[in-house]
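anyone else get weird line breaks when pasting these?? whatever heres mine. first is seq + tokens for prot A
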Amino acid sequence: MLPFIKAVSKIEQGFKVYGVICPRPWGVQINKNYATKYDQTSKNIVFVDGVRTPFLQSGTQYKNLMSYDLARHSLLSLRRKIGFPNEAVEYICYGTVMQEIKTSNIGREAALGAGYSEHTPAHTITMACISSNQAITTAMGLIACGTYDVIVAGGVEFMSDIPIRHSRPMRSLMLQANKAKTLAQKLSLLGSIRPSHFVPDLPAVAEFSSGETMGHSGDRLAAAFAITRKEEDEYALRSHKLAAQAQSLGYFSDVVPIKVPGIEEVVNKDNGIRVSTPEQLAKLKPAFVKPYGTVTAANASFLTDGASAALITTEEKARLLGLKPKAYLRNFTYVSQDPVDQLLLGPAYAIPKVLEKSKLSIKDVGVWEVHEAFAAQILANLKALDSDWFAQRYLKKSEKVGVPELQKWNSWGGSLSIGHPFAATGIRLVTHTANRLIKEDQQFGLIAACAAGGQGVGMILERYPDAKI
């Protein structure tokens, strides 16, 4: 390669391509001194604040809306809460999983609807349950390389109205009918329709690679790690109790009320939080692996509607805009592993990796916010972290990672109780981490989550000096 570069650099007013001299009309000169001297990676990237709509069980108060309505409300509410100037936002990263075809780039459509500048680019991200984590870390990357300074990240999921397609044969006929020019051609196509064509193509929360639902994977993990039904129900009950307590104490300051057309009362709180009793939980039947499975409707996260948004910028820019950040965004990592047997073990892989990257230990972390897909998934990840065998075989470590003190773990409840709108959960995790760092007077917080495809994320936040909720 080097001799070739030297040969090319000697050619005046042109360059050689396969023995042909081609003109170089712009007079471009090779600059041997260019590159790698301009380093912006030392920027302090901060999380200013985040908001979310109330997370509601699908089919309830939001059922007649669109994902666009919730996304728009989150972006509008973020600006109102923080008070940043509209023109300050340079880019928008927004996540969604179950995409509404009318608003395929939901980030752009919702931003326009919320009054953001038409000159602010936006793109939509999908990475299953960690889509808005990806929105945040994409923002971090764009800021770190100096492309932008102020970015809004967010995500929305609307399970009350998911896209349901005609069957593939029916879709094919419709496309052919659209091209048919004569009456005879159209009648011929009409005559080829069969009753089976009317069976819809229903979406499923299942892995394309394995055809298995996450609930089955939850049951698989429970069996592999010897987790009992009682343990799962106890953990689920813990989540609901802590969420109910946090809700009653007003800790969910990230929730922004929304007035839904046709609903008399303003929607101002999550509606999936329900404190039951061990006896009531024990009566529920297995939801996936019947009759011997342990995952039930009560110890699994439910289908949820909701949206979230957050402002990400540099410490310097926040100061210039008169904004007070809540936390530094210090580090992150993504992981992936076997999507069959280890589909939900993302946290067990991401936690040690992000701790190592950040030169931190488990004892350094004062706030843990880990996505609760299923109680079995949480307990399996905790057991994996506490296993020398798992560490040696899968993490290539000499000894186990260890587990945190549980009073620092999801102390305001989690997805099992608050709800899990797939692409909106990541912002909720980050906002709760930042708020808990302040409320609980801790320095470092760790966020982790699993996602479809056997993927996962780990993130480290550090409390901003003198930050307030």
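and prot B, same format (seq, then tokens)
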Amino acid sequence: MMKFKPNQTRTYDREGFKKRAACLCFRSEQEDEVLLVSSSRYPDQWIVPGGGMEPEEEPGGAAVREVYEEAGVKGKLGRLLGIFEQNQDRKHRTYVYVLTVTEILEDWEDSVNIGRKREWFKVEDAIKVLQCHKPVHAEYLEKLKLGCSPTNGNSMVPSLPDNNALFVTAAQTSGLPSSIR
């Protein structure tokens, strides 16, 4: 199913969720510094770069395209961290990947067109900032810390077809103490 906007096509899965893709962009394979970008809607707030998938686009390709457009970086696409659902105000289903940055452009599409900014954050600081600005994005980094960091031996999450995918919802992390979320 697709809805058309003046300059983009939105794609939806069979359950009516908007299909999105994003990347946690890390400065190095140690995954201790993550790149956040300013929101196009609220320029004083930081978010994880990502956006809607185009028709016929694979999630990994969409994630790479989105970080190139929004953050002006290229890199090595790593593991699929998970598929996150946002049900409350919008029905989004976001494929979140890990990307190790290998190239940083001086000027990029969103910096030129809308004045978007980017900044490196230590993971702990990024979680705090995102909890204030975009709590669903903080969940991505919290999941990374819980079980998918490269240092704990679980560096690969198997790729699953859409019908067997791993979903993480706010309800699954909200009951945990913040010290382990």
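btw re prot B: The chain has one domain: 16-145. The beta strands are 2-4, 9-11, 18-26, 33-38, 46-47, 50-52, 73-86, 92-104, 118-122, 167-168.
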